[in-house]
Amino acid sequence: MRDFKKLEVWKGAHEIALSVYLLSSNFPKEEIYGLTSQIRRCAVSIPSNISEGCGRSTENELRRFCDIAMGSASELEYQLLLAFDLNFIQTDTYEKINNELIVLKKRLNAFIQKLKSK
Question: Does the reported pTM lie above 0.90?
Answer without folding.
Answer: yes
